[in-house]
């Protein structure tokens, strides 16, 4: 009488011969540690010395993926004809079965399945059976803690799992020659090979805190060539990591892939950096901004240009751009490709490079603005420049000068001097008062206890012209 356990690991896959090189190495463990009640039940019914256990790995069509003796050195239980393992249950406690280069043909990771049966062949009937799905989490967390089945004769579990995948580094990313730079707006550039694994295998991770913690990239980048930017990972928060090192790897916290390689990339703006902003606001209400002069830390390199140069309104709570349309400078006509294009910086003093925006309008009152631009090298977008929060410009529209003559004495006799009371508000600084084009200096009108400015000693004519300006010469419009 023969009684066999059959270990059937079913792989549900979609054939795609274009991905022939995508394979796994899997080790399945059988451990002869039955529970006490199962062991006693088995002893009461079967002759342990004459029985064999059978282990087989099959694909989703039931075809045996044959285990090879050459991959299982020292294991005398391999049957090359059947491609399975047969052993006496009272032999060694643990058997590890190595399955090398198991095909990974599938567009996503489909659960493996294990089915175990104990047969009594005289007459033929199933004495004990069981089954369970072997999910991806059990592959990346291998070991006895992830028991799959507990049978008469012991336990089955995944001992180890390794996708045969590697990381490819182009020259500008290869960590073997030092930490490389990843520019803002530049794609990741690192890739995995071969292609053809399910997306769960291409799980890229990154660390922002010197490898203390790791995060998965978004699902849409679980691919061999992810081509994400740091903005894709962090959104506007990426600005906080310019000038810092970000680490990358492939796999999971419980299991790393591609040999466990963890590599750094230095995140850089790859653009001239704003060192200072000099802002000259409009003098009068309704006037243009006089100028915004931006000083950079360096000159433009040969073939380097700044595109989309602009003032962009930000939310003062987050310092992130809001929905207000930007002020692009220079601006010619709608759709002109030269809008926001800077090809040359001014060197007004040795080693000091700047660019000035002058005589423009369009800023929103009480809005806060930052400088933003993109750096292009030979017409290739390579970097991003954004001024720091401490240099933000808060635009405040000057208050208009408004005045009203609230009281004017009538002369009692010819050539009598009279007094005029004027209410004035708005503008900047102190006020200047003119009568018929002559500034009133002696005495100069000042705001008195009644809240008004008084012009005294005025000799009235048929029509007197009174004008009030602020210290910038602004008048009521």
What would you say this structure looks like, in words?
- This protein has 477 residues and is mostly beta strands.
- It has 4 domains: 6-163, no CATH class; 166-268, no CATH class; 274-394, Immunoglobulin-like; 402-470, no CATH class.
- The protein is built from 3 helices and 32 strands.
- A 6-stranded mixed β-sheet has the order 4-5-3-1-7-8.
- It is elongated and about 140 Å long.
Main traits of this protein?
six-stranded mixed sheet, mainly beta, disordered N terminus, 3 helices, 477 residues, 32 strands, Immunoglobulin-like, elongated, five-stranded mixed sheet
Number of domains: 4
Cα distance spanning the termini: 111 Å
What's the total helix number?
A: 3
Global geometry? elongated
* Rg over alpha carbons: 40 Å
Biggest sheet, in brief? 6 strands, mixed
Helix content: under 10%
- Specify the structural class: mainly beta
The fraction of residues assigned to DSSP E strands is 35-45%
Low-confidence stretches: 1-20, 119-126
Number of strands: 32
- Adjacency order of strands in the biggest sheet: 4-5-3-1-7-8
Arithmetic mean of pLDDT: 83
Signal peptide: 1-22
Keywords: Signal
Quick overview of this protein structure:
The protein has 477 residues and is mostly beta strands.
List strands and helices in order, with pairings.
Layout: E1 6-11, E2 23-31, H1 36-45, E3 53-59, E4 78-79, E5 84-87, E6 94-103, E7 112-121, E8 124-134, H2 136-140, E9 149-151, E10 154-163, E11 166-168, E12 180-183, E13 191-193, E14 204-207, E15 215-216, H3 230-234, E16 244-250, E17 263-268, E18 274-280, E19 289-296, E20 304-314, E21 327-328, E22 346-349, E23 352-360, E24 368-377, E25 380-386, E26 393-394, E27 402-408, E28 418-425, E29 431-435, E30 438-439, E31 453-458, E32 466-470
Parallel strand pairs: 1-3, 12-17
Antiparallel strand pairs: 1-7, 2-6, 2-10, 3-5, 4-5, 7-8, 9-10, 11-13, 14-15, 14-16, 16-17, 18-19, 19-23, 20-21, 20-24, 22-23, 24-25, 24-26, 27-28, 28-31, 29-30, 29-32
């Amino acid at each position: 009488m023969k009684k066999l356990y059959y270990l059937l690991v079913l792989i549900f896959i979609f054939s795609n011969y274009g991905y022939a090189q995508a394979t796994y190495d899997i080790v399945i463990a059988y451990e002869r540690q039955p529970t006490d009640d199962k062991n006693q039940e088995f002893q009461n019914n079967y002759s342990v010395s004459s029985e064999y256990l059978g282990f087989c790995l099959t694909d989703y069509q039931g075809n045996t993926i044959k285990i090879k003796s050459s991959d299982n050195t020292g294991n005398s239980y391999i049957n090359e004809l059947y491609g399975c393992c047969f052993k006496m249950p009272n032999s060694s406690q643990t058997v590890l079965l190595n399955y090398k280069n198991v095909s990974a043909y599938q567009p996503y990771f489909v659960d493996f399945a294990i089915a175990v049966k104990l047969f009594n062949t005289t007459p033929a009937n199933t004495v004990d059976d069981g089954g369970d799905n072997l999910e991806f989490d059990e592959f990346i967390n291998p070991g006895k803690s992830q028991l799959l089945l507990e049978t008469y004769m012991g336990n089955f579990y995944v001992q180890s799992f390794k996708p045969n995948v590697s990381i490819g580094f182009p020259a500008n990313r290869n960590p073997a020659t030092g930490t490389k730079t990843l520019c803002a707006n530049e794609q990741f550039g690192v890739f995995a090979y071969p292609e053809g694994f399910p997306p769960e295998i291409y799980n890229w991770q990154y660390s922002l805190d010197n490898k203390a913690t790791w995060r998965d990239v978004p699902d849409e980048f679980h691919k061999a060539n992810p081509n994400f930017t740091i903005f894709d990972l962090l959104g506007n928060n990426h600005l906080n990591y310019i000038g810092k090192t970000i680490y990358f790897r492939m796999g999971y916290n419980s299991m790393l892939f591609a040999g466990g390689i963890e590599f750094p990339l230095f995140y850089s703006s790859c653009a001239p950096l704003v060192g200072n902003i000099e802002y000259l606001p409009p003098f009068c209400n309704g006037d243009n901004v006089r100028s915004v002069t931006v000083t950079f830390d360096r000159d433009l390199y040969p073939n380097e240009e700044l595109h989309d140069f602009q003032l962009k309104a930000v939310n003062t709570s987050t310092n992130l751009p809001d929905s207000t349309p930007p002020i692009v400078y220079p601006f010619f006509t709608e759709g002109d490709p030269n809008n926001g294009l800077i090809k040359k910086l001014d060197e007004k003093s040795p080693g000091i490079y700047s660019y000035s925006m002058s005589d423009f309008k369009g800023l929103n009152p009480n809005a806060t603005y930052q400088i933003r631009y993109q750096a292009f090298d030979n017409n290739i977008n390579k970097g991003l420049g954004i001024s720091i929060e401490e240099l933000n410009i808060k635009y405040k529209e000057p208050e208009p000068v408004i005045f009203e003559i609230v009281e004017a004495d009538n002369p009692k006799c010819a050539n009598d001097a009279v007094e005029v009371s004027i209410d004035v508000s708005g503008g900047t600084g102190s006020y200047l008062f003119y009568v018929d084009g002559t500034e009133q200096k002696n005495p100069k009108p000042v705001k008195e206890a009644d809240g008004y400015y008084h012009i005294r000693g005025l000799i009235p004519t048929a029509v007197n012209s009174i004008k009030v300006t602020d210290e910038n010469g602004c008048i009521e419009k």
